[in-house]
């Protein structure tokens, strides 16, 4: 009696294995739409979940009660729920259950655990020059930024067995405002960046939609660059000096086809570029800088 989340092709089939007494179902989606779940549930398709709504509205009500009880207080809520946008909320309640664990390769036991509630997982990053036993780095959202963490190898954690508490993840890069940028891409399918090297920050991150559009995110350029600058304005009663604020930039590339994007990778060797694969064409998109 339940309806699938999206349309499927007539080529979908099912098979029954009599020996294992199992039914195997193969569903071929009719389009490239992302399915957050198998079955359609109208109650869970609301981006603004009931839990988040109650939390934000409850905060406003609490601040209003305090203001009414003591008219002399000037305390105001830090934000207005009416000013929030869709990208400020998770796609579903499932995203709040993310847990990061570190497992010891000898004892196979969990040595460290962190709950990432409110910190969305963005993408993973391939690493080099950290030794053959290095694992992938990962980027999670903190506020509006993307924070890149590198799990340290077992050989680098010499103080763990001696009982001393030591951080097992190393902060290697910060992608300014990338968390907000990626959250606004509702049709994104792939996220890729060049291989991360020791001592080097990420030069750019590329995001691909299901079809056509490629977004290239670049970090702020050095102070001696000729890129556009934003200058902090000075108010009438402020003695603060004028400051130059460098911002990250985003470029949009549109492919000349509506075919679904089936493969996507970003690289900086031998030069910064993006490889995009569709059903019939392989595109090489070189980037300047």
Q: What's the topology here?
A:
Layout: E1 13-17, E2 22-26, H1 50-69, E3 99-103, E4 110-115, E5 121-125, E6 137-142, E7 145-151, E8 169-175, H2 178-183, E9 188-192, E10 204-209, E11 213-218, E12 230-231, E13 244-245, E14 249-254, E15 261-267, E16 273-278, E17 282-286
Antiparallel strand pairs: 1-2, 3-4, 5-6, 6-7, 7-8, 9-10, 10-11, 11-14, 12-13, 15-16, 16-17
List keywords for this structure.
nucleus, SJCHGC05725 protein, 4-stranded antiparallel β-sheet, HSP20-like_chaperone, 2 helices, mainly beta, about 290 residues
Please summarize what this structure is.
It comes from Schistosoma japonicum. The protein is mainly beta. It has two helices and 17 strands.
Report on the architecture of this protein:
The chain has 289 residues and is mainly β. Helix content is 9%, strand content 31%. The protein has 2 helices and 17 strands. The longest helix is centred in the first third of the chain and has 20 residues, at 50-69. The chain starts with 12 loop residues before the first strand and ends with a strand. The relative contact order is 0.09. Residues 47-60, 70-75 and 224-233 have low confidence and may be disordered. InterPro entries: HSP20-like_chaperone (IPR008978), NUDCD1 (IPR037895). Keywords: Cytoplasm, Nucleus. It comes from Schistosoma japonicum (Blood fluke). It is found in: Cytoplasm; Nucleus.
């Amino acid at each position: 009696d339940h309806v699938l989340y999206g349309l499927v092709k007539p080529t979908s089939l099912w098979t029954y294995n009599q020996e294992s007494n199992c039914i195997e179902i193969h569903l071929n989606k009719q389009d490239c739409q992302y399915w957050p779940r198998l079955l359609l549930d109208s109650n869970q398709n609301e981006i603004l979940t009931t839990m988040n709504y109650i939390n934000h509205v409850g905060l406003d009500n609490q601040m209003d009660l305090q203001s009414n009880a003591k008219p002399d207080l000037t305390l105001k809520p830090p934000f207005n729920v009416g000013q929030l946008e869709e990208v400020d909320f998770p796609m579903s309640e499932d995203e709040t259950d993310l847990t990061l664990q570190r497992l010891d390769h000898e004892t196979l036991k969990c040595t460290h655990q962190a709950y990432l509630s409110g910190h969305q997982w963005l993408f993973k990053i391939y690493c080099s020059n950290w030794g053959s036993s290095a694992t992938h780095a990962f980027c999670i959202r903190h506020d509006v930024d993307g924070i890149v963490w590198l799990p340290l190898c077992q050989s680098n954690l010499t103080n763990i067995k001696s009982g001393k508490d030591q951080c097992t993840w190393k902060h290697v890069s910060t992608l300014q405002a990338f968390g907000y940028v990626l959250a606004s891409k509702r049709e994104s399918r792939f996220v890729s960046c060049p291989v991360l090297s020791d001592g080097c920050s990420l030069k750019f991150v590329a995001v691909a939609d299901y079809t056509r559009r490629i977004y290239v995110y670049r970090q702020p350029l050095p102070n001696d660059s000729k890129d556009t600058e934003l200058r902090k304005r000075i108010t009438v009663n402020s003695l603060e000096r004028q400051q130059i604020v460098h911002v990250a930039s985003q470029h949009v590339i549109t492919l000349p086809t509506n075919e679904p994007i089936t493969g996507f990778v970003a690289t900086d060797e031998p030069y910064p570029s993006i490889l995009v694969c569709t059903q019939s064409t392989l595109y090489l998109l070189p980037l300047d800088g």
